[in-house]
Amino acid sequence: MPLDIRQVGPCFAGAVDGIDLRQPLSSADAEAIHAGMDKYAVLVFRGQVLSQEQHLAFTAALGEIEHSIGASLRAANETRVPTTFADVSNLGKDDKPYDREDRRRLFAIGNRLWHSDSSFKVVPAKYSLLHALSIPSKGGNTEFAYMPDAYDALDAAVKVEIGDLVCEHSQMFSRQQVGFFDFTDEEKQRFAPVRQRLVRIHPSTGRKSLFLASHAGSILGMPIPEARLLLRDLIEHATHERFVHVHRWQVGDLVIWDNRQTMHRARSFPADERRDLRRTTIVGDGPTVLQQVA
Ligand code: OGA
Ligand code: MN
C-alpha cells in the first residue's frame, strides 16, 4: 500500500499512514517521505514502537546521521544512548528524572524556547526524527512553526531590510534568555557562536524562510539591543498561531521535522515525571552563509 499523508496543521504538518517503520524502507517510500517533508515540513507517524536499531536504520535510509557530540552538558560517561542519538529525555543514567536544580536539566530547559536544531553549528541540521518512549501525564507537547509562510507574511519593507542579514547563533544565547549564565571556560569555547543567514532558501522548494532560533544573539553590523529586539519581533511574528501546529505525544510516535523550514519548542511538564524522547538528526546541506540571497 502506498503511504498516505493527511494535513493536520494550519498550513503545514501531515500525519502519515500506510507504513511500518520497523521494516526496511523501500525507495518508493523514501521518495514519498522526502516529497512529503518538502511539502508539509513536519510528518507524524503514530503507533511506531521502534528499537534503537530500527530508529537508526530508518534515519540512515533518509540521509547522513549527525552525531550529538558536545551539544549538551551530559558528560560522555553519563549518556544513556550512543552519539547517533540526542537524548532529549529528562533522565539521568539511573533512568530517574533529574533533580529540579540539576544543571543538565536547566540547560535542557533551553529547548522550551523556539529554535531550529543545530543552528549553533556551522552546518545546521536538515531533519530531526524524534521518537517517544515515555511521556508525562500532562504537558510536554512539542510545537512547530512554519517559516516559509511566516516569511511571506512579512511587510515588503521588512523583507528588504532583513534580506542580507547574518546572525550569530550559540547555545549560550538561548540559555542566557532563561537566566542560565554559569558556563565553564571549556563550555564557552565549545559553544562559540557561528554565523547563519536570517533568510534562507529551501534547496528543494525554492521558498524563502526566516531562519530564526533563540540561539541567535546578534546580527553582524547591528548594535546588540537593536538586533535582539528585531529577532524577538520576528519570532513573535513567526509563531502566531496561524503558523503553529501542536503535537500531543503518544508513546510510539515518531515525528520528523525539517529544520530548514520550521522552528519548534518543547512545552513544560511535571519535573518529577519521566519524559523519554530520543532524537536522531540528519546533517544539513551546508553553511547558510554560503547561500546567495536573490
Ligand atoms: C529536540 C527538541 C522538543 C521536545 O528534540 O530537538 O527540541 O518537545 N525537542 O522535546
Ligand atoms: Mn530541538
Describe the structure.
It contains eight helices and 15 strands. The relative contact order is 0.23. The chain is globular. Strands 1-2-3-13-5-15-4 form a seven-stranded mixed sheet, with helices on one face. The protein has a three-stranded antiparallel sheet with strand order 12-6-14. The termini are far apart. The longest helix has 15 residues, at 224-238. By secondary structure, it is α+β, with helices and mostly antiparallel strands. The protein has helices spanning 27-40, 52-60, 103-108, 147-152, 156-162, 171-177, 185-190, 224-238; strands spanning 4-7, 14-17, 42-45, 86-87, 127-134, 142-146, 166-169, 194-197, 199-201, 208-210, 216-219, 244-247, 254-258, 262-266, 276-281. Residues 111, 115, 117, 264 line the site of manganese (II) ion.
Annotation field: number of helices: 8
Structural class: alpha+beta
Low-confidence spans: none
The fraction of residues in strands falls at: 15-25%
> End-to-end span in angstroms?
41 Å
Lateral arrangement of strands in the main beta sheet:
1-2-3-13-5-15-4
Radius of gyration: 18 Å
Query: What is the count of β-strands?
Result: 15
What's the overall geometry? globular
Element layout with pairings:
Layout: E1 4-7, E2 14-17, H1 27-40, E3 42-45, H2 52-60, E4 86-87, H3 103-108, E5 127-134, E6 142-146, H4 147-152, H5 156-162, E7 166-169, H6 171-177, H7 185-190, E8 194-197, E9 199-201, E10 208-210, E11 216-219, H8 224-238, E12 244-247, E13 254-258, E14 262-266, E15 276-281
Parallel strand pairs: 2-3
Antiparallel strand pairs: 1-2, 3-13, 4-15, 5-13, 5-15, 6-12, 6-14, 7-8, 7-11, 9-10
This protein binds N-oxalylglycine (OGA) and manganese (II) ion (MN).
